[in-house]
Specification:
single chain; 213 residues; alpha/beta; Rossmann fold; six-stranded parallel β-sheet; two-stranded antiparallel sheet; 5 helices; 24% helix; binds pyrazine-2-carboxylic acid; binds zinc ion
Length: 213
């Protein structure tokens, strides 16, 4: 296994997704030490950052009379309305200070278009606007994307599915992720990923295998 063929994608390890954050994910902070350990087995790491303008279409507060976790029909399809989170330049949008991945090469910021959300690190929610990540990964010779971070059933799952759609192998490191689990979203995400050929692994297996490789 040539290291350059394997890229670790660390998704949205940001304060607003941590306990106490604006869109808190239960036990979200537990991924940090797992990812720190995992990342040492990868020479190539890419980080993502959810990065919305304050006027973003995914925020319930920008829709009169609507509450968080309701859905709304947008031109590109159904959109979950979230509490305002990861507003560009705020503390809540910052990466967790204990995330220790100094060798990460690229940070992809997504969700910056006011009228389009982007769970996926590859393609925005209109399903047509690319972030550029697929082109970057192809150019550096990546074959498999390993995924970790938040949330399993939204940004991790959508990124894993789009990695497959872009022609990469994809493996979700399940103990390095935590889920939002809204109305069965976690079970649905695992089913969709399985059907798309996304593999599942545990961080202890990977770190060991990759050290031996
Ligand atoms: C996410 C909901 C809204 C995520 C981002 O990182 O999974 N979920 N924005
Ligand atoms: Zn978001």
């Amino acid at each position: 296994m040539k290291p350059v063929e394997d890229v670790l994608l660390v998704v949205d390890v940001q304060y607003d997704f941590m306990p106490g954050g604006a869109l808190a994910i239960a036990h979200g902070d537990e991924v940090v030490p797992v990812i720190n350990r995992l990342a040492r087995a990868f020479s190539h790491v890419v980080l993502t950052q959810d990065w919305h303008p304050a006027s973003h279409v995914s925020f319930a507060s920008n829709h009169a009379g609507r509450a968080p976790f309701e859905t709304v029909a947008l031109p590109y399809g159904e959109q979950v309305l979230w509490p305002a989170h990861c507003v560009q330049g705020t503390e809540g949008a910052a990466l967790h200070r204990d995330l220790d991945v100094p060798h990460a090469r690229l940070v992809i910021r997504k969700g910056h278009h006011e009228q389009v959300d982007s769970y996926s690190a590859f393609v925005e929610a209109d399903r047509t606007t690319p972030t550029g990540l697929a082109g970057y990964l192809r150019e550096v010779g990546a074959r498999r994307v390993w995924l970790a971070g938040l949330a399993t059933d939204y940004c991790v799952a959508w990124s894993a599915l789009d990695a497959r759609a872009a022609g990469f192998e994809a493996t979700v490191v399940e103990d390095a992720c935590r889920a939002i689990d809204l109305n069965g979203s976690l079970e649905r995400a695992w089913r969709d990923m399985r059907e798309a050929g996304v593999a599942r692994a545990r961080s202890d297996e990977i770190a060991m295998n990759r050290r031996e490789a």
